[in-house]
Amino acid sequence: MKKWLSSLFISVLIVGLAACGSQSTENETSVNNSGSTSGEGAKVSVGEMVDYKIIGIDPGAGIMKATEKAIEEYGLNDWKLVEGSGAAMTAALKKAYDKEEPIIVTGWTPHWKFAKFDLKYLDDPKGVYGDEESIHTIVRNGFKEDHPNAYKVLDQFYWTADDMSAVMVMIEEGMKEEEAAAKWVEENADTIAEWTAGVEKVNGDKITLAYVAWASEIASTNVIAKVLQDIGYNVKLTQLEAGAMWAGIADGSADASVAAWLPVTHADYFAEFQGKFEDLGPNLEGTKIGLVVPSYMEINSIEELK
């Protein structure tokens, strides 16, 4: 009888220990969307959760160069910067955001994604991405003499991040680019009057505006094109990669651009083509670039990616 009870006790003890072990394993492998474990086991890194990928945009863009430098400066040797486009980046962001999954993207403001999603920049203690930037207007040499009225409009063009965001949101919600620009121009007559003060109308003079395919630059270029069209210019919009945009202004194949990000994003192009263009100064101030994540991710600094 004692032998039977002893066997029974041992059997119960084994089952109990097995159950505890199973629960412990479950706790150790339960992972939340921040990239850490919800139990007391070893943490799963953010890198593992996103397959060590940062979703980028066009190759050669200033923010891509800055991100490559950030990977080096912060010792993120296992990480890969994925090239693509602005549209592909926002599509990947939306897909992850809708599922509350972790994702890291290259980001900049102004951009409509900050109005649509709850996002945050990762702190950059090494200052790789620089401080706040401005978007400048640049024109080819000789543009002022050839098109003095367009030059004056471009020189007086200045607006806010809220202005730009209003146009971007209309486009993102399905309105055609030129229609969104026309609507904004119609609703902001006082601002347009400041841009066109002292300007005379022309009769079909041709102007080419170059821009990069960022949502912000699509908005600004279409708006300024509408203003120039309303005073009689025949405006052609040419979408290019950043390097080609600067080269076009420098060689005169394009007349102007309101899409030059300085002093960091387009620093290389500014230096390369120095003297071959005229910088009219900022048309929008207080922009920013860096690495962006959804706010639900429990990570706050680029250093935490290592």
From TrEMBL:
It is found in: Cell membrane. One of its GO terms (molecular function) is amine transmembrane transporter activity. One of its GO terms (biological process) is glycine betaine transport. Keywords: Cell membrane, Membrane, Signal, Transport. CDD domains: PBP2_OpuAC_like. Gene3D superfamilies: Dipeptide-binding Protein, Domain 3, Glycine betaine-binding periplasmic protein, domain 2. Residues 47-187, 205-306 form the ABC-type glycine betaine transport system substrate-binding domain. PROSITE patterns: PROKAR_LIPOPROTEIN. Its main location: membrane. Residues 1-18 form the signal peptide. One of its GO terms (cellular component) is ATP-binding cassette (ABC) transporter complex. This is Glycine/betaine ABC transporter.
